[in-house]
């Protein structure tokens, strides 16, 4: 989808479809202007009550007199005084879903009427682009039958009925398009089946990005990890036929002296639980257990694609968690890259075992901050559901930045404690720590485990177990938290 932004009188827009906002049953500004040219045709339709009052409801009208456009799509914005980012997102999604099924090849969305109070045009542009791209995302490369036909819509103009298009709005368009490319990448990697999206596949995807965007890349193989002493990551990988990969991608868009933001992603390409085998129901969804890694590749792609003036290192820790004669047993004790020892009491708590070594490895990049992203615990889904990702941090300022980035991107997080009080749950009689802390506060003790490996770092951890994918009929990857990570990187560099 090609996006552009311009100032344009609605009645003159030669477009396949005009998209006009409606508050309650009252046309917003651009709609009023179009209605005037159409001699009240829009108002007459609205008076009949055919457009539902809620944000995202749509009504399609054809061949109205006085308008250059072929169609008009009215979209509900909800009541004017209740209009916020949630309503904007709903309206954009509703409009995009309706446009998807039309024959129109281009559309003109009047965005000037859709700026929520307290938000600017740039933020509105970002929500519009990401919302439309989200609705137009498809993953049907593995279907040979009954594919939905590709939508005709190929171009969308974000239009202002009045007022100039600012450079900030233009920049937001570019940022959002690149972000959407990153979200698409993360979604596709998540949706790919675990027999295709293996650790080697993730490493190859990273190599492709490196070629396309001229990034630095290094892929550590099993023997490299052995030499370094990543005993914990290797313990998870040892039950699988798939070789583990530790991928380091570097994008340098900022000043040379600027320390990088390091993103570390959990890349378990399939999590059976290992010898502590998971129950069978919905186990297929554990193909999404590499979503943290996917979001790291997506965020790096986005930042490189928009040529952001930031320095970022993306680390992907990839392996598979399988039961096998070679697999780690409950009770095994391993030595991590940090030197600390871990008693593996449950092989299904494997995410923290690969992340701890990747986090220790991240120290060598002298990061300004490190953020790890992981589908780490079922307990986080119980705590926060599918709306907010869990945010854990050892640094108040970083934590506040991550929260703000999440709010701006509508990719929200909620803070959870990483207090020392929880650490005793990780006590082991035989090693420095156990890899599980019991049922109470399961997402917190997982974070506390990671905290033992980040004492030298400004660190935040995002538990995306509830937000990285959807189950049920809509089963599929969401691409979260790529939008958050992009905002965070820009913020860190003082560019947002
Ligand atoms: N990948 C899972 C976490 C998960 C579970 C994400 C369900 C989304 C939905 C992780 O590796 C895991 O198995 N965690 C265990 C930890 C436990 C053994 C301490 C869990 O959450 O049950
Ligand atoms: Mn697991
Ligand atoms: Zn897992």
Topology of helices and strands:
Layout (H helix, E strand, L loop, with lengths): L1 E6 L10 E6 L2 E2 L1 H9 L3 H7 L10 E5 L8 E6 L8 H16 L5 E5 L10 H16 L18 E6 L6 H25 L7 H15 L2 E5 L1 H7 L2 H7 L7 E8 L8 E11 L19 H15 L5 E11 L11 E3 L5 E3 L7 H12 L6 E6 L3 H7 L4 E5 L2 H14 L3 E3 L17 E2 L7 H10 L7 E5 L5 E2 L5 E2 L4 H11 L4
Parallel strand pairs: 1-7, 2-5, 2-6, 6-7, 10-11, 10-14, 13-17, 14-18, 15-16
Antiparallel strand pairs: 2-3, 4-5, 8-9, 9-11, 12-13, 15-18, 19-20
Helix pairs in contact: 3-4, 4-5, 5-9, 6-9, 8-10, 9-14, 10-13, 12-14
Zinc ion binds next to strand 10.
Task: Describe the 3D structure.
This protein has 14 helices and 20 strands. By secondary structure, the protein is of the alpha/beta class. It has 2 domains: 159 residues, Leucine Aminopeptidase, subunit E, domain 1, CATH 3.40.220.10; 315 residues, Aminopeptidase (3-Layer(aba) Sandwich). Strands 8-9-11-10-14-18-15-16 form an 8-stranded mixed β-sheet, with helices on both faces. Strands 1, 2, 3, 4, 5, 6 and 7 form a 7-stranded mixed β-sheet that branches. A 3-stranded mixed β-sheet has the order 12-13-17. Helix 3 packs parallel to helix 4 and helix 9 crosses helix 14. It is elongated and about 80 Å long. It starts with a strand and ends with a helix. The model has no long low-confidence stretch (mean pLDDT 98). It binds ligand BES, manganese (II) ion and zinc ion.
């Amino acid at each position: 989808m090609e996006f552009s932004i311009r100032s344009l009188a609605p009645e003159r827009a030669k477009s396949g479809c005009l998209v006009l906002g409606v508050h309650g049953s009252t046309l917003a500004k651009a709609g009023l202007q179009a209605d005037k040219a159409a001699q009240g045709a829009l108002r007459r339709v609205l008076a009949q009550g055919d457009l539902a009052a809620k944000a995202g409801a749509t009504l399609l009208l054809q061949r109205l007199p006085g308008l250059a456009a072929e169609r008009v799509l009215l979209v509900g914005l909800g009541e004017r005084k209740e209009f916020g980012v949630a309503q904007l997102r709903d309206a954009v999604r509703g409009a995009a879903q309706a446009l998807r099924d039309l024959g129109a090849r281009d559309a003109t969305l009047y965005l000037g009427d859709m700026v929520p109070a307290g938000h600017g045009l740039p933020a509105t542009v970002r929500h519009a682009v990401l919302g439309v791209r989200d609705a137009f995302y498809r993953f049907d490369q593995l279907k040979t039958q009954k594919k939905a036909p590709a939508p005709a819509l190929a171009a969308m103009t974000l239009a202002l009925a009045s007022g100039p298009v600012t450079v900030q709005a233009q920049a937001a368009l570019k940022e959002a398009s690149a972000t959407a490319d990153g979200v698409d990448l993360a979604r596709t990697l998540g949706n790919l089946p675990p027999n295709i999206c293996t650790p080697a596949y993730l490493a190859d995807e990273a190599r492709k990005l490196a070629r396309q965007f001229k990034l630095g890349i290094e892929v550590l193989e099993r023997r490299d990890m052995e030499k370094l002493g990543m005993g914990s990551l290797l313990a998870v990988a040892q039950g699988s036929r798939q070789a583990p990969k530790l991928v380091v991608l570097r994008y340098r868009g900022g000043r040379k002296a600027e320390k990088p933001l390091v993103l570390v992603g959990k890349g378990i390409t399939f999590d059976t639980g290992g010898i502590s085998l998971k129950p069978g129901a919905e186990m297929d969804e554990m193909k999404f257990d590499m979503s943290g890694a996917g979001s790291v590749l997506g965020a790096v792609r986005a930042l490189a694609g928009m040529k952001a003036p930031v320095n970022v290192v993306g680390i992907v820790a990839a392996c598979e968690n399988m039961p096998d004669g070679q697999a780690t047993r409950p009770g095994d004790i391993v030595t991590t890259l940090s030197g600390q020892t871990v008693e593996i009491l449950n092989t299904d708590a494997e995410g923290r075992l690969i992340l701890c070594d990747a986090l220790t490895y991240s120290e060598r990049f002298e990061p300004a901050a490190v953020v790890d992203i992981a589908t780490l615990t079922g307990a986080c889904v119980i705590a926060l559901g599918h709306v907010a990702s869990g945010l854990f941090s050892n640094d108040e300022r970083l934590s506040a930045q991550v929260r703000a980035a999440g709010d701006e991107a509508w990719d929200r997080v909620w803070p959870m404690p990483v207090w020392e009080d929880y650490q005793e749950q990780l006590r082991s009689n035989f090693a420095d720590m156990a890899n599980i802390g019991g049922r109470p506060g399961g997402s917190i003790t997982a974070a506390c485990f990671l905290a033992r490996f980040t004492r030298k770092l400004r660190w935040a951890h995002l538990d995306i177990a509830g937000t990285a994918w959807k189950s049920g009929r809509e089963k599929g990857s969401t691409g979260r938290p790529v939008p958050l990570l992009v905002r965070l990187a820009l913020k860190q560099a003082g560019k947002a």
